[in-house]
Design goal:
The complex is a heterodimer of chains A (83) and B (270). The model of chain A has no long low-confidence stretch (mean pLDDT 77). Chain A is an alpha+beta fold. Chain A contains three helices and two strands; from the N terminus they run αααββ. Chain A has a two-stranded antiparallel sheet. The longest helix of chain A has 20 residues, at 14-33. The N and C termini of chain A lie far apart (60 Å). Chain B has an eight-stranded mixed beta sheet, with helices on both faces. In chain B, helix 1 packs across helix 12 (232-244). The radius of gyration of chain B is 18 Å and the shape is globular. Chain B starts with a strand and ends with a helix. In chain B, 49% of the residues are buried. The model of chain B has no long low-confidence stretch (mean pLDDT 94). Classes of the chains: A alpha+beta (83), B alpha/beta (270). The A-B interface holds A 8, 13-16, 18-19, 21-23, 25-26, 29-30, 33 and B 145-146, 149-150, 153-154, 157, 161, 186, 188-193, 196, 199-200.
């Protein structure tokens, strides 16, 4: 077993890929879970306002509320300046 | 007062009904008066797995709508003393499950039984919600596979926010039951290991049920697999019941069965 697993350990197994993907996804979904229902709607509306001035897409806006809803964090990735 | 257990998963086809049948039978074998309630209205199958499909006259929705009494609808299991089945309706849809109606039926069952095992439908819609809403304890059935683990985590979120216990500021007790586990594929790095799944879901492990021919054989015959005490799956369910009741049992069937020298040298098939 020892020798076999030594050779096998070199390339990443599909199970370890699965675990990594799940860890990222589950952490993200848990962080979404405790957020209030209005957040997606608010994200849409904020995005609509920003889009009036700048060329941005949904993926460029991140809105997070911390656990007890006391800090609203808004990140907008602006497109690179065209020269 | 009975303890209400929900067997749930989010994802379909992971072994909820097989596990419900095994758990209900296992508890009854230990001398507890137990009722198995099928919440999968419109797609009932617990009756088939328990081998009582030809004895269904009235069902859960009939009792909710007061078209039949509980005693008329309950089916007594012929193999296991103290075990009863309350089948789901096949002709209605899940909207027939009203919260007041379900609560009334569970309250009435609670006077008669030690354990109420609710077999949840897949999904997170009304049927699944009603099955878990009144639960004291949840057994989350998960396969070592990405979509099942993700859906289990989702169901845990629902248990922690939308169950009655959660609304009262309490917690539903959560157990992980990992089913269809294939140690050979885990060893080959092709399947999430029991530790991987525990790391991600972070709830106590009740048992690991190996992928087993005995499960299909049992369902073919309408006999809960826990009664097949020669089989690995049957024994694994018995261990899970023992742990559920507070006994210490080491987890079995996590390693590849020892093979002979010949198959060890030549045996790794794709």
């Amino acid at each position: 077993m020892g020798i076999l697993s030594y050779f096998r350990a070199k390339k990443q197994t599909s199970a370890s890929v699965a675990k990594e993907r799940l860890q990222v996804l589950v952490a993200y979904e848990r962080s979404q879970r405790n957020q209030p229902d209005y957040l997606p709607q608010m994200q849409q509306e904020i995005l609509a306002v920003i889009a009036r001035y700048v060329d941005v897409s949904v993926d460029d806006v991140q809105i997070n509320l911390d656990e007890d809803c006391s800090i609203l964090e808004l990140n907008v990735t602006l497109p690179e300046q065209k020269h | 007062m009975a303890e209400i257990i929900v067997v749930t998963s989010g994802k379909g086809g992971v072994g909820k009904t097989t596990s419900s049948a095994a758990i209900g039978t296992g508890l009854a074998l230990r001398g507890f008066k137990t009722v198995l309630v099928d919440f999968d209205v419109g797609l009932r199958n617990l009756d088939l797995i328990m081998g009582c499909e030809r004895r269904v006259v009235f069902d859960l929705v009939n009792v909710i709508n007061e078209e039949a009494t509980l005693n008329q609808a309950l089916i007594r299991d012929k193999r296991t003393e103290g075990l009863y089945i309350l089948p789901a309706s096949q002709t209605r849809d899940k909207d027939a499950l009203t919260q007041d109606g379900v609560e009334r039926v569970l309250n009435e069952l609670s006077e008669m039984f030690d354990y109420i095992v609710c077999d949840s439908p897949a999904g997170i819609e009304r049927g699944a919600h009603m099955a878990l809403y009144f639960a004291d304890t949840a057994i989350v059935v998960t396969n070592p596979e990405v979509s099942s683990v993700r859906d289990s985590d989702r169901i845990l979120g629902v248990l922690q926010s939308k169950s009655r216990k959660a609304e009262q500021g309490e917690q539903v007790r959560e157990h992980l039951l990992l089913t269809r586990y294939n140690p050979a594929r885990v060893q080959a790095g092709e399947m999430l290991s029991v530790d991987d799944v525990r790391d991600i879901l972070a709830i106590p492990l009740l048992g690991v049920i190996p992928e087993s021919d005995a499960v299909l054989k049992a369902s073919n015959q309408g006999q809960p697999v826990i009664l097949d005490d020669q089989s690995d799956a049957g024994q694994a369910y018995q261990d899970a019941i023992a742990r559920f009741l507070g006994e210490e049992r080491e987890h079995r069937f996590l390693e590849v069965q020892r093979k002979g020298l010949f198959s060890r040298v030549f045996g790794r098939k794709g």
